[in-house]
Design a protein that fits this description.
By secondary structure, the protein is α/β, with parallel strands linked by helices. The protein has seven helices and six strands. It has a single domain, classed as 3-Layer(aba) Sandwich (Pyruvate-ferredoxin Oxidoreductase, domain 3). The protein is globular.
């Protein structure tokens, strides 16, 4: 995976899904973790379809080391999708070197050249007993895969952002997503090392 942080100072993120999945909350957590936890600049722009619950929904987050003059995103560096319609709406905007995160049970990606990182976020949330926490699992996954926000900043912001009394369960959901992301990266590294060894 290209280290986005090393090559540019500004990273543009779109999280998309449908109303009721907590897409805007996920974007808010990313933005606040970057700004308050990691002391970077961040902006959040949200949009809803004609129906808030069930309609198309997205959150656009810009994270930067410098002042952000324009909060709207034309070509995201990272696209996180939690619905097929959201994927279809934004996939053509993803930068050629950008990365794609998907809920693997909800999205069937077409042929794209971008790196794809998939997690069964909704299924994992159902296993915890709270389907509504799929967004928090995705935030944990995003944190591990992209490294755009630190673990401590993300986890602390999750705890501050969720309803009182659900902090422990949401932290568990976040950790599940984060650990899944780390395991996925480790598996890819082993696979790459195996290929290198085979060539040598």
């Amino acid at each position: 995976m290209p280290d986005i942080q090393a090559t540019v100072n500004t990273t543009e993120v779109i999280i998309t899904g449908f109303g009721g999945q907590g897409i805007v909350l996920a974007g808010k957590i990313l933005g606040e973790a970057a700004a308050l936890g990691d002391k970077k600049e961040s902006t959040l722009v949200q949009s809803y379809g004609p129906e808030s619950r069930g309609g198309a929904c997205s959150a656009q987050v810009v994270i930067s080391d410098r002042t952000i003059h324009y909060p709207y995103i034309r070509q995201p560096d990272i696209l996180a999708c939690m619905s097929q319609s959201g994927y279809e709406k934004y996939i053509d905007q993803l930068k050629p070197e950008g990365i794609l995160l998907i809920d693997q049970d909800l999205i069937t990606p077409g042929k794209v050249k971008n790196p794809i990182y998939a997690i069964p976020a909704t299924r994992m949330a159902e296993e915890i007993g709270r389907k509504m926490m799929a967004n928090i699992i995705m935030v944990g996954f995003f944190t591990a895969i992209t490294r755009q926000i630190t673990l401590d900043a993300a986890r602390d912001t999750v705890v501050k952002s969720v309803p009182k009394g659900t902090e422990e369960m949401n932290t568990k959901a976040f950790t599940k997503g984060y650990d899944y992301g780390l395991a996925l990266l480790k598996g890819q590294e082993k696979k790459a090392a195996g290929k290198t060894g085979a060539i040598a």
